[in-house]
Amino acid sequence: MSEQLRVKTMQDFMAEGKQPEILFWVGSAGSYDDRAKKITRAFVKLLNKAGVDFAVLGTEESSTGDVAKRAGNEFLFQMQAMMNIELLNGYEIKRIVTCDPHSFNTFKNEYPDLGGNYDVIHHTEYLKELMDNGRLTITGEGHKGKRITFHDPCYLGRANAVYDAPREVLSKTNAELVEMKRHKKTALCCGAGGAQMFKEPEKGDMEVNVLRTKDALETNPNIIATGCPYCNTMMTDGIKAHHKEDSVTVMDVAELLATSQGL
Amino acid sequence: MEYLPNIIFAVALIIGVGFFARNVKRLSRNIKLGKDAEVSDNKPLRWKNMVRIALGQTKMVVRPIAGIMHIIVYVGFIIINIEVLEIVLDGLLGTHRLFSPLGSLYNFLIGSFEVLALLVIIAVVVFWIRRNIIRIQRFIKPEMEGWPKTDGNMILYIEFVLMTLFLTMNAADFQLQQLGAEHYVKAGAFPVSQFIVPLLEGLPESSLIMVERTAWWLHILGILAFLNYLYYSKHLHILLAFPNTYYGKVKPLGEFNNLESVTKEVKLMMDPDADPFAAPAEDDVAEPEKFGASDVMDLNWVQLLNAYTCTECGRCTSECPANQTGKKLSPRKIMMDTRDRLEEVGKNIDANKGEFVSDGKQLLDDYISREELWACTTCNACVQACPVSIDPLSIIVEMRRYLVMEQSAAPTELNNMMSNIENNGAPWPYNQMDRLNWVNE
Prior knowledge:
The structure holds 2 protein chains of 2 kinds.
Chain A: E1 8-9, H1 10-16, E2 22-25, H2 27-32, H3 34-49, E3 54-56, H4 66-71, H5 74-90, E4 95-98, H6 101-110, E5 119-122, H7 123-132, E6 147-150, H8 164-171, E7 176-178, H9 208-217, E8 223-226, H10 229-241, E9 249-252, H11 253-260
Parallel strand pairs in A: 1-3, 2-3, 2-4, 4-5, 6-7, 6-8, 8-9
Chain B: H1 4-31, H2 43-55, H3 64-93, H4 104-132, H5 147-179, H6 197-200, H7 205-229, H8 237-247, H9 260-270, H10 301-309, H11 315-319, H12 321-324, H13 331-351, H14 370-374, H15 381-385, H16 392-406, H17 412-424
Helix pairs in contact in B: 1-3, 1-7, 1-13, 2-8, 3-4, 4-5, 5-7, 8-10, 10-13, 13-16
């Protein structure tokens, strides 16, 4: 067991009769996927360092239903959404932060219509906010001398026009930021969206993640940064397909900020 | 007999415009076959989008070469229409160069029309070369074989011929003016057509009048014919781009609509006071609403307007991750299929006295295959790329909804994923009680 994280659930807060500043929606990938759990832990280390009074739902959390909606199962999506909304509204949640752009998108855009109105932010936006208001101070050399290229997750970038926050956070690590030829609005998908993560791709002559990793490798980076657990998986597999796993790593923005501070 | 040309002209004009009006009516009837769409919100933003995207061509110049060439043709088309107004009035009234009393302004206008006409000719030639010699990838995809390819070239030929006729007419006119021919008032500036004049030199006045009149008539009849070609062509975008950008998506691209019919059912299921054995109310005889879309009538009218607006430029397809990696999906084909099926349904209605009689066909499977639908990553690259705010993704999602909710026909792996969510609240088969294990790992 590594360093102890300070994590409280909503039930803990209720028992104390208090409200957290923010709810951290961990998401299914962040809860179960071995790679994504590292992102969750890195983000929590930063929240702990900044002294943020946050809560998680823990075992009360369930799927947002986002992936069911993209697959066409509106029924399952709305079932999940209404259950979650009942829970979140019961706890009087006002503000939600998440490391998953897919949860971010559906909370922000699709839940309000069903009765779930929250201030929803992506973890890269929240990290920027913590740094901007001085709660999270960044010191030291960080990743000086490293070349980082940021892959825009579709549901953060094109879908919700969040392009600057992850880049600003990355710039705080003192790394050299290089852009891929296709970035921001024209960024190519990693191949996981629209429920593709959970199925074999249709017949073609290449995998989408291999093509996108090619874009990234053309910038000759040490690190490919992402802000989405699914993009992370796809790009990591892409690196392997290009046999570059020894020289290039795929990291989440939160992990890069945490490691730059020795966390 | 003096008024014969005026009468012939008026008849041609009435037939040309009348036919066009009939096609517009048919177009609007077909679009209205779609379901209602909520478009009354965000009016200021909608107007802004129309001005910026359609009038201002902002998304065209994302690809600079095609964008700038397109602006030339577009500006040429709009401005030269001022000249068409004069031609129509001349034709009806039997006058010649009715606007010439405008003097130096007239000269300036005619001069700039000529320069634009030349630029349009150059742009059209470049477009033709891009399609037929360089064979740019997005113009030679499978869905472009046959009529779509011919259609694309036809439009270029027509524009080339119209501009050439316009310049020929002016050249002959200019020469006639210099010869002091009767009726041919000295008016206009001819910066481009003056170079055609040497080809006409030595022709007697009567032949020059023949050339001028022939070019004049062919030019205006050509324009009327082109107007009526629009409906049968991808070229409708010159009109529909404006309403389409107005009615286009004004919400974040990531936001998919929540199906209201589903909301009703889910609320009922979650309501502890609902009586599960309640018989439907007596007046509730309406058929339950179909989930998703298997045919064009299941789509909303904005999606159908989208289909007619598509000019098959293929920017969506060239940005699509699935298409770039050799999958069958092409967002452009989704739009073309939707339009072609809608046309088929429209003809069926025309042939059956205003009623649609089932033809055993539908948009799903007969036009758009399941393989195409399941290849989409919902990344919105196609929506972002479209220069006229078409949303192919919304059609793909609507058809997936039909497959999943009406047919239970999702790919097996997705069915597994969905039953995991149903059983344990995650797309993987893990216990919900383990959700917090990451804290201590």
